[in-house]
Write a structure and sequence with these properties.
The protein has a domain of 197 residues. 81% of the residues lie in helices and 0% in strands. The longest helix has 55 residues. The chain is rod-shaped and about 90 Å long. The termini are far apart. The N terminus and C terminus are likely disordered.
Amino acid sequence: METFKSSLLIGACAAVLLFALPELSAQQTNDPAGGGTIKSTIVENQPEQVTMERKTLWELIKNGGLMMWPLGILALYGFFKAGVQVYVIILSNNEKRDQALLAHLNPHVMPFDDLKSEVETDISQRAQAAFPKMCEAALARLYEGKEAMEEALTREGAMQLSRLKRGLKPLQSVVTVAPLLGLMGTVYGMIASFQSLGATGDKVEILSKGIYEALVTTAAGLTIAIPFLFIYQWLNHRVDEIGEKLNRQAAAFLEKFHPSGGGGNEPEQEAKEGSQSDSGLEESTADTDPLGT
């Protein structure tokens, strides 16, 4: 009986010590005079804290919340539109190809059908080019004179430049909308963070984590908007350069058909009119000769 009581007493003491040890270790950890226990605990936990603070880019995107989806779609849309405009502005409206077309068009050697066929072939190869369509519009009014061709060149050139400018509007929209979407995601994230303060746990930790994740959308929006802003400015500058080149090329095109400010057929018409007037003058003098000679 005494042996049983002794065993029971020893088991009770062991249970008390087992439940009391976690509290004792916690007090030693929080005690600044704990010596080696504090140092060993800090050394063991420090790598774990550093690992928790470092996050990959994909983890940041996932933590950005629902607003990261429209930002991702907007970025893909911006890349697509930027690629299209680079093809249209840089590759299609190439000055060297425009100069080659201008050199092939020779109204003194080629008939009208060949001139029209040459322009239509270039349009089929470069559907987004501006200068071939200007040449097509001017050739359609070839027999109406210099002023009609100049008017056709001016009108079609203005229309083509407006088309190039309209093609840059989507990039401008991406630059404007991306920061706004990022800011909206941050606002929603801040609202969710403050709503979670009523939950149990460390409120400071919950709030800091929520703000940290909410700011990801703002960073993503700015990261999308800034590169597309530079692309938009660069392409807009190239469109302005294309406008200046089209003016020079249109003047050279018009000079080929109406050199020195006059029409190609106007000198011949003036010569015919002069000969007709001279013959009419001779006839009138013959009729009015008083001597009948």
